[in-house]
Design goal:
- With about 775 residues, this protein is α+β, with helices and mostly antiparallel strands.
- Helices cover about 45% and strands about 20% of the residues.
- The strands form six sheets. Strands 1, 2, 3, 4, 5, 13 and 14 form a seven-stranded mixed β-sheet that branches. A five-stranded mixed β-sheet has the order 9-8-10-7-11. The chain has a five-stranded antiparallel β-sheet with strand order 16-15-19-18-17, with helices on both faces.
- Strand 15 (about 345-350) and strand 16 (about 355-360) form a beta hairpin.
- Helix 5 (about 145-155) packs across helix 10 (about 280-290) and helix 22 (about 650-655) crosses helix 23 (about 660-675).
- The longest helix is centred in the middle third of the chain and has 41 residues, at about 300-340.
- The protein is extended.
- The model is unreliable at about 5-20 (pLDDT under 50).
Length: about 775
């Protein structure tokens, strides 16, 4: 009996010693017990390798965790930052010993967390203000990323979630359950922590088009989408009763975790770092009156109150009433003005008689009407009366009429009619205003419709392509060098299965000689980097034909990193390569045609601006240049001169020498006048018939006179015979010059008219001379 008692005492001591050696690590089950355990188990395995299997994982709700902390059954804990503040206040912790570094699917580390506000893709909720009065789903109001971060953003925007206007549903489960509640319409808005959406997308639990994020922020270098500011990631902290050496060993193992541990990284844990500053979280908790800061210190003014109670009550009543009225009016006004002026959609109001009572500018731009044409008119009769098929659209079927009738909100795709009679597709939301009509919000979805049509065509093409595609698979056992092909690969390679010796070397023999080295190199590079590879290469058929194939491959490795088996697919892409080549050739030809068209267009444009006979600028070109030079000189306070020129007795010349000789004469004179102008800014143009005009800017009177005399003398020097001239025996010209001073306010029309008058004066006073006026 004494030996039996001694045995039980010894066994008790052993069990007691073993129990003391264990380190109980408590983890908050923020994604549910099962998923949280799955996430942290690789970390526990890693810690146990370094701490002699002494670490015990306890995945707990916050209530379970609080209970175990109170009973001293946990040594080290990791939870969200706000829960940490509560525990720190209750048990006088010295602080955190480490902070989590999470990692995204793309491998980007982050030591911050945030909250995400989500709605369904088709939800009318667009801003934080739209969330008021809606049903909100959250894993728990105690979650940092799943509720409190979002609540702080709402608090900063002046929205109090504690006022009971919004219904808050706590799923008391995982963040994923919140997402499912949104998709199944159990709630209007969901609060979850960052990284959850990306994880569900990666696992295929949702698609990118299911969920829309409200109030999205874009913090630099943060790998996840968020709706809130960022806060430090989960802290790790030790309870006061934990063994000091155990904590040191645990912390050393935790901080020595390298990001090369793929199993742990796969669970979203990059590593741990020195503890972060949790003052930001403390500030959030204080503003939201969260534990441990929910108690406000009592401040009394009893004496003042006793003396001025009545006055205070009156003043406070009027101040409160005034502020309440002012805030309500300001919010209504700001919200309404913001909605009308800043929203990118068309918005209008309709009363119970189907008359439009107000409309924003964007809506007017979309439908092409003016505000006067729309207000107090029947909107259905104005721009909603027919369908694109030209059928009459009965107003009884109009969603505006239906919502006026039953008060139900409607979301539909429909068509509106512009003022010019053209139809355009719209995404339409009609919402009832209690007893005051409806609000209609619409968006032009022409681009979306075109994209959908293009997508449908693309999907049909893809389905056809997939039906015609030939894809085979292969497997190479590197230990035995045994290569296995599916029947489709034999079909692609056009090789008889019974006669082909399947091996990697034989596979290379079937590849085009110029591609063998690159294919072989791609495969062996993949083995070295342990990454999948893709390569397009050619095959040579027995009859000399070339086929193109796309090969994709990957390998399995043992624990030491040695490759064991390689697997992959081969797809015949010959037709794809042919089409791409044809597209390149077609693109090249199209570019050539476009270049030729541009050249011809430039030539036509030049021909339109130059006189076809004399090849100098024509009247059209002159008008444009005269307009420009007049504006320049008026702006810059410069002088401007116009010289009108007429060939003397040209009609007799043309009548007697003939039109051919007359054209030759005009060509010669035009060339001579052009060469006589020395400055690049000076210009001569054919004004019409035998008339020419010259523009001179930024020149003095003497200079203009010299130019005009030089033009007279130049033509005189040509000595073109003219036996029918009353001036000389040669062709001459007369010139009328009008000169505008820099400070003159004369119009361009007046300047041109005065030049014409001066020309008349030169001709009436004997011709072959210059007459001028100053304007």
């Amino acid at each position: 009996m004494q030996k039996l008692i001694s045995f039980f005492l010894l066994l008790s001591l052993i069990v007691s010693a073993y129990a003391k050696d264990q380190i109980h690590f408590g983890v908050f089950a923020y994604t549910g017990s099962e998923k949280t355990r799955e996430k942290y188990q690789p970390l526990i395995d890693y810690l146990n390798e370094r701490l002699d299997n002494r670490v015990v994982l306890d995945v707990l709700t916050q209530e379970e965790m609080n209970d175990k902390i109170a009973k001293g059954q946990l040594d080290i804990v990791t939870t969200n930052p706000t829960h940490f503040l509560v525990v720190r206040q209750q048990y006088a912790l010295s602080g955190a010993i480490a902070t989590l570094i999470s990692v995204s699917e793309e491998g980007t580390p982050a030591c911050k967390l945030g909250g995400v506000i989500i709605v369904r893709r088709d939800s009318p909720i667009r801003t934080l203000y739209d969330i008021q009065g809606k049903t909100i789903a959250t894993p728990s109001t105690k979650h940092m990323g799943g509720f409190r971060a979002q609540a702080y953003e709402m608090h900063d925007a002046g929205i109090d979630l504690s006022d009971k206007k919004s219904k808050i549903i706590e799923t008391l489960g995982s963040h994923q359950e919140v997402v499912h509640d949104i998709l199944t319409q159990k709630a209007d808005v969901g609060f979850i922590r960052d990284g959850i959406l990306e994880e569900m997308l990666r696992k295929g639990e949702i698609t990118a088009g299911d969920i829309r994020i409200i109030h999205e922020q874009h913090p630099a270098a943060h790998p996840y989408k968020v709706s809130t500011r960022l806060y430090p990631e989960w802290p790790v902290f030790a309870l006061p009763h934990a063994d000091h050496n155990d904590v040191k060993e645990f912390l050393a193992a935790l901080l020595s975790l390298k990001p090369t541990n793929e199993e742990i990284k796969k669970q979203g844990i990059y590593g741990y770092t020195l503890p972060a500053d949790y003052l930001e979280v403390e500030e959030l908790s204080r503003h939201l009156r969260l534990p441990p800061f929910e108690t406000v210190p009592e401040v009394t003014y009893a004496d003042i109150w006793e003396h001025y109670k009545a006055a205070f009550l009156v003043i406070l009543f009027f101040i409160a009433a005034g502020m309440l009225f002012y805030n309500q009016q300001r919010k209504k006004k700001n919200l309404f003005e913001s909605l009308l002026s800043n929203i990118g959609d068309g918005v209008f109001g309709v009363d119970e008689n189907r008359h439009c009572t107000w409309i924003n500018q964007r809506a007017l731009e979309l439908i092409g009407f003016t505000e006067k044409e729309v207000l107090y008119k029947d909107q259905h009769a104005l721009f909603h009366h027919h369908r694109p098929s030209n059928e009459i659209y009965p107003h009884e079927e109009c969603p505006v009429h239906l919502t006026l009738k039953d008060g139900k909100t409607r979301h539909e795709d429909d068509y509106f009619i512009r003022r010019d009679g053209t139809f355009f597709p719209v995404s339409l939301t009609v919402s009832s205003i209690d007893g005051e009509g409806v609000i209609v919000v619409f968006r032009d979805i022409t681009e979306r419709k075109l994209a959908e049509e293009a997508l449908q065509k693309s999907e049909m093409s893809l389905i056809k392509a997939q039906n015609m595609a030939h894809i085979g698979n292969w497997e190479l056992d590197l230990r035995t060098n045994n290569l296995e092909w599916s029947d489709e690969i034999f079909h692609i390679f056009e090789i008889d299965r019974c006669r082909f010796d399947a091996s990697y070397e034989a596979f290379l023999e079937a590849i085009h000689p110029d591609d063998r080295e690159s294919v072989n190199q791609a495969y062996f590079d993949s083995l070295q980097t342990k990454q999948p590879y893709t390569i397009d290469h050619r095959l040579v058929m027995k009859d000399g034909r070339i086929k193109w194939v796309r090969e994709v491959g990957d390998s399995e490795y043992d624990v030491e990193g040695n490759p064991l088996i390689s697997r992959g697919t081969v797809q015949d892409i010959t037709e794809e390569v042919r089409i791409l080549q044809e597209l390149k050739e077609a693109k090249s030809k199209l570019e050539e045609v476009n270049t030729a068209l541009q050249q011809k267009s430039a030539i036509l444009e030049e021909l339109a601006m130059f006189d076809g006979l004399t090849h100098i600028p024509n009247r059209r070109f002159f008008d444009e240049m005269y307009e420009r030079k007049y504006k320049e000189t008026s702006r810059d306070k410069k002088t401007l001169a116009v010289i009108m020129i007429d060939v003397d007795y040209f009609k007799p010349y043309n009548d007697h020498y003939g039109h051919v000789q007359g054209d030759a004469c005009l060509i010669t004179i035009a060339e001579a006048l052009k060469k006589s102008l020395k400055r690049p800014t000076d210009m001569v143009a054919r004004y019409g018939g035998e008339e020419f005009v010259v523009i001179l800017k930024d020149i003095d009177r003497e200079g203009v006179n010299n130019v005009a005399q030089r033009l007279i003398e130049t033509v005189r020097a040509l000595q073109i015979p003219h036996a029918y001239s009353d001036v000389t025996q040669y062709v001459t010209i007369s010139a009328g010059m009008a000169f505008k001073e820099a400070d003159s306010a004369a119009s361009k029309e007046e300047l041109l008219k005065r030049a014409d008058e001066a020309l008349y004066l030169a001709k009436s006073s004997g011709r072959d001379k210059v007459a001028y006026v100053i304007v």
